[in-house]
Amino acid sequence: MNRRLRHKMTALAGFLALPGILLADQPEWQDHAEIRQVAESFVQSRAGSDSQVSARAGRIDNRMRLRHCQQGLEAWLPTGRQIDGGNTTIGVRCTGPVEWQIFVPVSMEIITPVVVIQDVLQRGSVIGPEHVTLEKRDAGTLRRNFYQSLDEVLGMRLRRNLSPGTVLEPGHLEIRRLVERGQRVRLLAKGEAVSVSMAGKALQDGARGQRIRVENLSSGKELEGVITGEGTVEIRF
């Protein structure tokens, strides 16, 4: 091969390697099936470990032509959208060298364990382990607030009558106070490498997960913490 021919071939190879130049074996337009697959995979990857998810992306208009994405497709969840069953919208985009984005409707079924009433229970009943069980239900057919752990509801009191098979919701239960104002409580101060327990006094009523004001009985200092159990308030520092 003479020097002139070798130079021309080298120049051609460099030209074909430039961004945006389609090689012979590359399609010109992005395959819609691949876009739909990326959206479905994204939904399935965001489900909890205890859930079984099936996702089906909607059809993309055949008239919509998007340049083939050489860098690979990326999916994201648009603001205001959720993955909790039913229908949602997933964004799919190409980041280069040609940039574009598209929103794909996805219908899904999320089968997840939820707390269900086993017996006929009257208003005022205190929930025991014999009253509830975990059953798998389609989250898309339920209200967004449901329980997925028996420990969350045991010992709580019902606000209304419930029948067997009812999926338990926060509105069915009275808020159970774990701390009352003036009560002596255990303060658990936690840091990255240390945990210290001390005596305190609650300055507010509260239920699990609520933030209340407390007083350190040793120093008299007023602090804020989160109720984590019966008579226990955790303070982070």
Describe this structure in words.
This protein is mainly beta and 237 residues long. The protein has two helices and twelve strands, in the order ααββββββββββββ. The strands form three sheets. Strands 1, 2, 3, 4 and 5 form a five-stranded antiparallel β-sheet that branches. The longest helix is centred in the first third of the chain and has 14 residues, at 3-16. The protein is flat and about 75 Å long.
List its salient traits.
single chain; 237 residues; mainly beta; 5-stranded antiparallel beta sheet; 5-stranded mixed β-barrel; 2 helices; 12% helix; flat
Helix % is 10-25%
Class from helix and strand fractions: mainly beta
**Ends distance:** 74 Å
Name the overall outline. Answer: flat
Whole-number mean pLDDT: 85
Total beta-strand segments: 12
Low-confidence spans: 5-24
Largest sheet properties: 5 strands, antiparallel
Query: Number of helix segments?
Result: 2
Please provide the ordered H/E string of secondary-structure elements. Answer: HHEEEEEEEEEEEE
Beta-strand proportion: 35-45%
